[in-house]
Design brief:
This protein has 5 helices and 5 strands; from the N terminus they run H-H-E-E-H-E-H-E-E-H. The chain is an alpha+beta fold. Strands 1-2-3-5-4 form a 5-stranded antiparallel sheet, sandwiched between helices. It has one domain. This is Lipoprotein. It comes from Actinacidiphila polyblastidii.
Length: 164
């Protein structure tokens, strides 16, 4: 599994068959080989594998609500996607985060940067109801909605694994 660390649910989901961030030295090389250098490219690939996923927003530096796009320790690209298995009644309408509605893909210069972002999110969200699943595709962090069941989230894991 050169491109994926198994599910990391921020509220403590056990990781089945997961590996540590340091055990994936070829992730960035593999990303370049398959041409997945941006969040948009990763999203397009995942959409081919997951019929319930649809890209909703491609962020720019001006529209990124986290103000990290293009900044020195930030991501290089970012997209939000929806998953049709998240039903309107499961999220809080207008205040729902893009992650709750499906997820976000953030692409970094290195896989280590993506893992650092995930660790920061994990410490920030620990104990909150805003937990999410994390998967890695090269230098990209795929953040998937906590609303989806573990069985549904396996679609994202399998799609990411198919790159390795």
């Amino acid at each position: 599994m050169a491109l994926l660390t198994a599910c990391t649910l921020l509220t403590g989901c056990s990781s089945s068959g997961g590996s540590t961030p340091d055990s994936q030295p070829v992730a960035d090389q593999k990303q370049a080989v398959v041409g997945l250098g941006s969040a948009e490219q990763v999203a397009a690939y995942l959409e081919q594998q997951i019929s319930t996923m649809s890209t909703k927003t491609v962020y720019t530096a001006a529209t990124d609500p986290d103000h990290l796009l293009g900044k020195p320790d930030g991501y290089r690209s970012k997209v939000a996607f929806t998953d049709s298995r998240v039903q309107p009644g499961q999220v809080d309408g207008a205040s729902a985060s893009p992650v709750d509605l499906g997820g976000i893909i953030e692409t970094f210069a290195t896989s280590g940067d993506a893992r650092s972002r995930a660790a920061h999110l994990q410490s920030t969200l620990k104990g909150l109801s805003a937990a999410e699943y994390h998967y890695y595709v090269g230098g990209s962090l795929v953040r998937v909605s906590r609303i989806l069941t573990p069985d549904q989230v396996e679609d994202y894991q399998a799609a990411a694994e198919s790159l390795g």
